[in-house]
Design brief:
The complex is a heterodimer of chains A (147) and B (399).
Chain A (H helix, E strand, L loop, with lengths): L3 H8 L12 E7 L4 E9 L5 E9 L2 H14 L4 H5 L3 H7 L8 H22 L25
Antiparallel strand pairs in A: 1-2, 2-3
Helix pairs in contact in A: 1-2, 2-5, 4-5
Chain B lengths: L4 E2 L10 H7 L1 H4 L10 H21 L6 E4 L2 H15 L6 E5 L4 H11 L4 E5 L9 H7 L4 E5 L13 H10 L3 E5 L18 E5 L10 E5 L14 H4 L7 H39 L3 E3 L10 E6 L4 H10 L2 E2 L15 H5 L4 H4 L2 E5 L6 H20 L2 H12 L5
Parallel strand pairs in B: 1-11, 3-4, 3-5, 5-6, 6-7
Antiparallel strand pairs in B: 2-8, 7-8, 9-10, 10-12
The chains are: A alpha+beta (147), B alpha/beta (399).
Chain lengths: 147, 399
């Protein structure tokens, strides 16, 4: 059901991990839908994304789109990163099954959420960037069970 | 890829070689129409009678109470829709559970749109209905109680005898979807007070495309498929003779091997459950620990998602399934896992492994090792796990 590229990025995801003292962190999605993505950005003083890492809870497509999104924004300027749309992520992966298109949207949102965090921390405005709508840390109630 | 370890026997089973062998002549030599006068048809009719007898004997039923269908879903649809229609003058209320197969649930929704009322019973944390809830749900206009014998996802076996008793005390018909149970647990329709029972051939090493509905003599439901006079005028369509013969052979095999086979499966199942719960942190067993199908194990692994787990198991040659309905186009996790009270994010990380007679201890050991590695890998990239670890290090009293 998945393209070879999706399978490759699922099996060998690029840029998995965390960045300590990241310039921006964004987490989107929710457990109800079964997908949560977190993207860490390391942005230098010239506004270049020097590093990008991710963590994802979700299906094969969710992992692959996160991996591809990090590859696409790495080394880019903030404005260039803003142009990494869900379509760009999907194309780079040779497409996704229709039911998985939302995963690519989530990847785009995760980048935007991380950029928003960076903008807020630095008191700047990024052209075309809107407040992320689905940051799970807003009003999330923990219902963890004990095992 | 090397060996395939097939642990999805609740989805379907391999047709047994004995079954295929029994079926083959009915494609080539004995291809006649069972309704025909000439002997080529008569041979088929005889083969069908024998298959029906084997199935009836397995249930303690009479031969003329077994009606062949194209599968379990047809049998479920027939039982519900035809009962609703036939007994509408008595009432329009049906009782079922929240954890039924969609062949029941979607049929109930269909009936609800046509003026019927359906009560969906809750289940406890093990997936078991409460008999008190059932009694309380009964109304003067209740015409049917439909409760699955054993759940297809979590394997929990319902108190069928008690449910049947309650139904009959109140003069209500009792249907059970026994698609997972038939051939795995002993069933006697009289002892269990069952009026109608659905089953499907391919779940017990029989062929696909054949099932039956047991209808107790005296239950007045009408034909669902209209046409010829087959199946005592209750189910039209030229009989699927190879399928019926195969189903008969599979039933005979299942009954003869039941005690020994299920003993072996239960031991391996419990070994699998023990190892997983002991060796994979933050895992849980879904379903009842004891009152469950001999071949069913269903787990949740916290902080990871089912589809990722399945793909990675597949890469290691292991076929399992997940309660996660991701691949079916719906993003909701399993309705069964939600009904037993699991929060969404945990219900998303489920894995069902269903064994067969051919499963070995080596298969289980290999599978457990694979699960351990994959779960650790997926947790390594899970933001939920990251948050959990962070929280734990701040909060030393967390287990």
């Amino acid at each position: 059901m998945y393209s070879e590229k999706v399978m490759d990025h699922f099996q060998n995801p690029r840029n998995v991990g965390e960045i300590e003292n990241a310039s921006g962190v964004g987490t989107v999605g929710n457990a109800k839908c079964g997908d949560i993505m977190r993207i860490y950005l390391d942005i230098d003083n010239d506004g270049i994304i020097r590093d990008c890492k991710f963590k994802t809870f979700g299906c094969g497509a969710a992992v692959a789109t996160s991996s591809m999104a990090t590859e696409l924004v790495k080394g880019k300027t903030i404005q260039e990163a803003m142009e990494v749309t869900n379509k760009a992520v999907m194309e780079a992966l040779d497409g996704l099954p229709p039911v998985k298109v939302h995963c690519s949207l989530l990847a785009e949102e995760a980048i935007h959420a991380a950029l928003w965090d960076y903008a807020e921390k630095n008191g700047i405005q990024i052209e075309g960037l809107k407040r992320p709508k689905s940051d799970i840390h807003e009003g999330e109630e923990d219902e963890q069970e004990d095992y | 890829m090397g060996k395939v370890i097939y642990l999805d026997n609740a989805a379907t089973t391999k047709t047994a070689p004995e079954v295929v062998e029994a079926m083959l002549p009915y494609f080539t030599e004995h291809y006649g129409n069972a309704s025909a006068i000439y002997s080529l048809g008569g041979e088929c009719k005889e083969a069908m009678t024998q298959a029906r007898a084997k199935i009836a004997a397995a249930l303690g039923a009479k031969e003329n109470e077994i009606y062949f269908t194209a599968g379990g879903s047809e049998a479920d649809n027939w039982a519900l829709k035809a009962t609703a229609e036939a007994y509408a003058s008595k009432g329009k209320h049906i009782i079922t559970t929240k954890i039924e197969h969609h062949a029941i649930l979607h049929t109930c929704e269909y009936l609800e749109k046509r003026g019927y009322e359906v009560t969906y019973l809750n289940v406890d944390e093990f997936g078991m209905i409460k008999l008190e809830d059932l009694k309380n749900a009964i109304r003067p206009d209740t015409i049917l109680i439909s409760v699955m014998f054993a759940n297809n996802e979590i394997g929990t076996i319902q108190p069928i005898k008690e449910i049947g008793e309650i139904a009959h005390e109140h003069g209500i018909l009792f249907h059970t979807d026994a698609v997972q149970a038939f051939g795995q647990v002993p069933i006697n329709v009289d002892e269990l007070h069952i009026d109608m029972l659905s089953s499907s051939g391919h779940k017990l090493h029989g062929p696909k495309g054949i099932g039956f509905l047991y209808i107790r003599k005296g239950v007045k439901i009408q034909s669902f498929i209209h046409g010829g006079a087959q199946e005592r005028k209750r189910r039209a369509g030229t009989e699927n003779i190879p399928g019926i013969v195969g189903y008969g052979a599979a039933t005979k095999l299942a009954v003869e091997t039941m005690i020994e086979r299920t003993k072996k499966e239960t031991e391996l199942r419990d070994y699998l459950i023990l190892r997983v719960l002991k060796e994979v942190p933050y895992s849980r067993l879904n379903g009842h620990p004891k009152k469950r199908l001999p071949n069913n194990a269903n787990f949740c692994f916290q902080f990871i998602e089912g589809e990722s787990l399945l793909i990675m198991l597949d890469m290691k040659g292991i076929c399992g399934s997940s309660g996660s309905a991701c691949t079916s186009g719906s993003l909701d996790p399993s309705h069964v896992l939600l009904a037993i009270g699991l929060p969404h994010e945990i219900a998303h990380g489920s894995l069902r492994l269903t064994l067969s007679e051919e499963t070995t201890k080596e298969d289980i050991d290999y599978t457990v090792e694979a699960i351990k590695g994959i779960v650790e890998h997926l947790r390594g990239m899970s933001p939920l796990y990251e948050d959990f670890v962070r929280k734990s290090s701040h909060n030393s009293n967390v287990k």
